[in-house]
Fold this sequence. Notes:
binds S-adenosylmethionine
Amino acid sequence: MNDKYIFKSINTNKEKKSFKEFLRHQTNSEYGGYKIYDGSRNHLLQIPEELSELVFFLNKFQKKKSNFKSFLEIGFASGKTNTIFNRFFKFNQIVAVDNFACDINANDLFANVQRKKLILLCGSSSSKEIKNNLKKFSPFDLILIDGSHEYKDVINDINISTNLINNKGIIVMHDIYNKEYPGVGKAWSTLKKNKKFSFKEIVCKKYYFNCGFGIAIKRK
Length: 220
Ligand SMILES: C[S@@+](CC[C@H](N)C(=O)[O-])C[C@H]1O[C@@H](n2cnc3c(N)ncnc32)[C@H](O)[C@@H]1O
């Protein structure tokens, strides 16, 4: 696919800055964006500083190591972050899981399942059926955990991810500093005890909402 309409790559600080500015237009003001919440629920659920820094980091990482070919996202919502990742990384396969328990914008969802190599599994990541299906599509080079934010569910998603991640793969967790969901931060602290990974955090605490990315890099 040669579709470059969001961004092709971010290799320089200048490109990162302009990508961050682009993200502000997709984001509500509580997260550091330019939009007022309008009920349409088609805004980006990310802090521009954090997402631009994450994509920059992942881009550099894959240049040094190997390309991310297979991506798993637990918690797809309407798929906006998924689409942004898909612009930067040449995935051969994207698998996403969502039980669609939250309100989403149906048009946004439809737009974000198109034009990508996506397998969308509808159901809870805690269910046996979903876990068995995920095994069939594993291993994954990159995993984003952003589904249920309850402690026991996040631990479930961490267990799935540590079992299905490729050697040299990366697990990213969203909302590790979100005060509304303390279970995520607690689960992140548990993952950080796992010696098979090294860790990094990307956090911007300037806005009304805090989110924060935790990154776990599989050691060889
Ligand atoms: C914060 S949203 C995900 C946002 C998305 N990653 C993005 O950046 O655009 C969390 C999503 O997880 C889903 N979810 C909640 N509990 C789940 C579960 N047990 N299994 C799968 N998905 C779940 C919700 O339906 C919701 O769409």
